[in-house]
Amino acid sequence: MSGDKSLLQVKNLRVIFNTDAGVVRALDGVDLSVGYKEVLGVVGESGAGKSALGLTIMRLIPSPPGRILEGSSIIFRGVDLLKLSEEEMNRVRGTGISMIFQEPMTSLNPVYTVGDQIKESIRLRIARSRRERPRGGRLERLDDGGSVEDELLEALRLVRIPDPEKIAKSYPHELSGGMRQRAMIAMMLAAKPSLLIADEPTTALDVTTQAQILKLLRDLMEEVGASILFITHDFGVIGEIADRVAVMYAGNVVEIAGVHDLFHKPSHPYTIGLMESIPHLTGERGELPTLPGSMPSLISPPPGCKFHPRCPHAFEKCRRETPRLVDMGGERWVACHLFGRR
Amino acid sequence: MPATFSGGDEQTLSDGYNPLLKVVNLVKYFPLRTSPLWGSLASTSQGKVVHAVDGVSFQLDEMETFGLVGESGSGKTTLGRTILLLTPPTSGNIIFKGLDITRLKGKMLREVRREIQIVFQDPISSLDPRMRVKDIVKEPLRASGFKDKRRSDEMVKEMLELVGLSPEHYNRFPHEFSGGQRQRIGIARALINRPRLIVLDEPTSALDASVQAQILNLLKGLQRDLKLSYLFITHNINVVRYMSNRIAVMYLGRIVEVAEADTLVSNPLHPYTRDLIASIPTGDPTHRLREIRIRGETPSPIDIPRGCRFNPRCPYAMDECRIVEPQLWEAERGHQVACHLYDQAS
Q1: Alpha-carbon torsion (B101, B104, B108, B109), positive or negative
Q2: Domains in chain B: how many in total?
Q3: What's the structural domain count of chain A?
Q4: pLDDT in tens, A56-98
Q5: CA distance B10 to B284
Q6: Residues of the domain holding B85
Q7: Which residues of A touch B212 (CB under 8 A)?
Q8: Which domain holds residue A164?
Q9: Which residue of B has its CA nearest to A281?
């Protein structure tokens, strides 16, 4: 999209899963990019493929049953991640790209203290930068003379954890949900990645805690200068954090736009329908506009545009031909026959 | 007395007017159980209790939707289950149609249960995977002793139609349905006994946005057509505002504020409610969240802070807040709040 100025560029990404019920086309030709110091929001309902996208970029899709099809590419800092060996990819994970998940409890190891886990992340980063294998607990001094312990406390302070010495000695179960997610973010940042993939990082949190974490993520990106691929089902959250937004439906990106443009003037009928169906905090309480039906099966999706059975504007061409993302100008791309092809 | 209902000790049971449901000073504690294996190690938890619901009073009128919002640990789900008599309250009273149902047993209890039904959050775990849709929907009829087989089959078909499922779904199993359709099955099951009151416990929280709208519309339509009353429990304030006539905000087992839905959202009085509402992302990138003044997270319902239970997180906490628990009282017409900032001047 924005060409080689991107930190990450995903081109024609296709991922399938072989299941007993048939071949699931989880990602069916995804194109998107993340710029430097940019937050790209990826929004979609369940089954849209947004989590599969995050895992595929990290190359964490289990294979089998998953398979990344020929012709896909994931260019990160000019290198196609799909062409790297497992060992090379390991160096990218953590130091290049980090990932945080919805439920920090399942990503943190319950038998180690939070401090030990963050220190491991710091040591791995240093070992990888020296192209060495990590040496367990031996490495305590950094190249610049600082200690791992100092950097641990610095990482905890960065995520605004009060009393970092105490939290470092705590086990994950002793912390609240919000504290755990902060610790998780500290661990990721300790690896100094240039891209953070955040998969529904605030979905399991209460709304007051969510507000604190969103604010924290926004501030941190300013401070450390990393980019985020922020995956969520929540349009409200997208409006809080994203610079640009990619809307996904049934394994495709159907619209990409700047967050202001998308909020004030969504183009794709799915984006419009989805945004209209969300109840607001103020305003009329009449019947909510709805999209009929639900997300199609990814094993036997409808032909043509996968959204056409639910689309109020569907016409003949939509049933035959899959629309491709078309440049509408002003950083907006839409995959819909209504907008024709140039 | 200015308060129409209070969190205090006064029980105003008979004031002539009978709402559909009246909850008076309801308390539900769960003792912390010590297992035989860890008992000796866990001596610190001996005698401690979880104060899940800690003195809640409210009333719900005919055909009203009363929203109950709160974050995790606020006790909203326990309150719903206690009202359904699924778990006996520690103390307090539940008055349904003027009758104290708190300690009913046997035939009378079955009769009341017929009239108060529930729809759960997760339509997967609340539907038996081995039962066909017709049997799931029919189950409450059987449980309440209805024996006419032909009539019950007819009623199941009526209910499925009412919730927007076609008769061809009659013989299928839950796994053959989407999340939204499963929630429709759960609603049909709640409706078949012709209840007066339905407790909706996060009924759309597991659903996608486009499907949530379908279910909310369905619930509104059913309320109008069948003259139902709803107790709508959720953490989602946008949804509860859209659905409810009045909303109560719960924090650590108590109601801290009650008001008309639009009033609560546009003019919240309690500092907790204010921050709760200020924390909701609007989706509008031009109005991103301001600095959140609330500190930390909800403490454990085992060790309730002394005085006002919100005081350790409250930016306005005064000395009094650390000592005296504020009671719910009517600070503005139809608007109750439990906060010392609004105490009467006297």
Answers
A1: positive
A2: 1
A3: 2
A4: 999 999 888 999 999 999 999 999 999 999 989 988 887 899 9
A5: 45
A6: 21-33+48-332
A7: 277
A8: 107-190
A9: B238
